[in-house]
Amino acid sequence: MPKQKEYTLKGLSERELLELADLFKMFADSTRIKILYDLFDGEKNVTEICEDIEMNQSAVSHQLRALKTAKLIKSRRDGKSVMYSLDDDHVKTIIEMGKEHIEE
Amino acid sequence: MPKQKEYTLKGLSERELLELADLFKMFADSTRIKILYDLFDGEKNVTEICEDIEMNQSAVSHQLRALKTAKLIKSRRDGKSVMYSLDDDHVKTIIEMGKEHIEE
DNA sequence: TATTCATATGAAAAGTTGTTCATGTGTTTC
DNA sequence: GAAACACATGAACAACTTTTCATATGAATA
């Protein structure tokens, strides 16, 4: 039996297109952009991030989890703290491209 | 009277952060990614786009308007048709960066 | 000018998302 | 081991998005 013809758009499968959209969803919220941008400096714990971006701890934790699931950041425990840092080289490039667009 | 201290995260104002998020929202939906990706080939009219991405005309028109408002695409009328094309050099780069991330 | 083709648009429904609140878990310190 | 500190999590609500349906507008053609 022949395999069901799957929709693709010039080599991109429906599944890959959805993954792409999910990835960009991570950049589609200003709280998450603040977190990512804050981590440009390097590793920080949750309390530091909360102070830097002026958001409460619960909201930040929820967004950190989303960013981690999307593999944009990683974490390690350090005593009572959990340290977060960027986990993808493309994050900076993507945000920089965005900045260039809005600065035109 | 001193100006009210405005929140900024390392030089990015709250306003710019919201603009950035709004920009990335445009990439955060697979229908819009399909449209943008489809336009990598060059100018196309609405009917062509609908066929390529297999979506109905109304849904596509709504998304075309969003992309145009965000200045990612531009349009010109050609007889009965309206031709759409990319209006930002960064669009390809941003999508390519996204592809690289998910392909890891 | 009536009809047809191409596109745009408004309203409504269904789904998704972000924040808050309350509370739970893990780690250190006393 | 009790208290304090740091972080995570589930539920609930409000706000926002995307698609569909119906219909409107605009341009070409008979």
Extended strand count of chain A: 5
Q: Report the mean per-residue pLDDT of chain A as an integer.
A: 93
Radius of gyration of chain A: 17 Å
Distance between the termini of chain A: 54 Å
Topology-level CATH name of chain A: Arc Repressor Mutant, subunit A
- What is the helix/strand order of chain A? EEHHEHHEEH
CATH architectural group of chain A:
Orthogonal Bundle
Question: What does the model show?
Answer:
Two copies of one chain form a homodimer. With 104 residues, the first copy, chain A, is of the alpha+beta class. The first copy, chain A, has one domain: Winged helix-like DNA-binding domain superfamily/Winged helix DNA-binding domain (Arc Repressor Mutant, subunit A, Orthogonal Bundle), CATH 1.10.10. In chain A, 53% of the residues lie in helices and 17% in strands. Chain A contains five helices and five strands; from the N terminus they run ββααβααββα. In chain A, the strands form two sheets. The first copy, chain A, has a three-stranded antiparallel sheet. In chain A, a hairpin with a 2-residue loop joins strand 1 (8-9) and strand 2. The N and C termini of chain A lie far apart (54 Å). The model of chain A has no long low-confidence stretch (mean pLDDT 93). The interface between A and B is large, with 39 and 38 residues. Chain A binds a DNA duplex (30 and 30 nucleotides) through residues 25, 29, 31, 45-47, 55-65, 77, 79-82.
